[in-house]
Amino acid sequence: MPISTLPPSAKAFIVIGALSLLVATQLSAIGFHALNEILTPAKRESWHWATEMQFYHSLGLILLALLGPRLGNSRLITWAGGLMVLGLLLFSGGIYLGSLGVPFVGQVAPMGGSSFMLAWLLVAIAAFRTGRE
């Protein structure tokens, strides 16, 4: 299916996923090179985990955009993508800011993790329902 025929939400997920991959690559390099002397070993590990999860879920957004048509462009897929974007902001963003010493921001990371999990559950439900509706 040509990208031009994808629904607007799918195109948005591809753009957001690609830009998020760009940012994750930049933040990974910053964490390794520029912040190596600033972050404690535990905060460096957190930073690394945040970039890793950002990579996975950014690719997940692109996957959702491409899977959506095969799953009947279910509203569940649109919600799943929105939850992944929210998860990127809350989980990875919260850990980045928390690692840099912004108080209380790291406490939103569990909500971001829950957003990721709920997103994948919605994808599973959409796949299960495909052909049944």
Q: In brief, what are we looking at here?
A:
75% of the residues lie in helices and 0% in strands.
Description:
The protein is mostly helical and 133 residues long. The protein has one domain. It contains four helices and no strands. The protein has helices at residues 8-34, 41-67, 75-99, 109-129. α2 (41-67) packs antiparallel against α3. The longest helix is centred in the N-terminal third of the chain and has 27 residues, at 8-34.
Key features?
133 residues; 4 helices; mainly alpha
Give the DSSP E fraction (strand runs of 2 or more residues): under 5%
Q: Structural class from helices and strands?
A: mainly alpha
Order of helices and strands: HHHH
**Spans of at least 5 consecutive residues with low confidence:** none
* Tally of separate domains: 1
Radius of gyration: 16 Å
SS element count, helices = 4
Average pLDDT works out at 91
Helicity range: over 70%
What's the number of extended β-strand segments? Answer: 0
Q: Separation of termini?
A: 22 Å
Major sheet, described briefly?
A: none
Shape: elongated
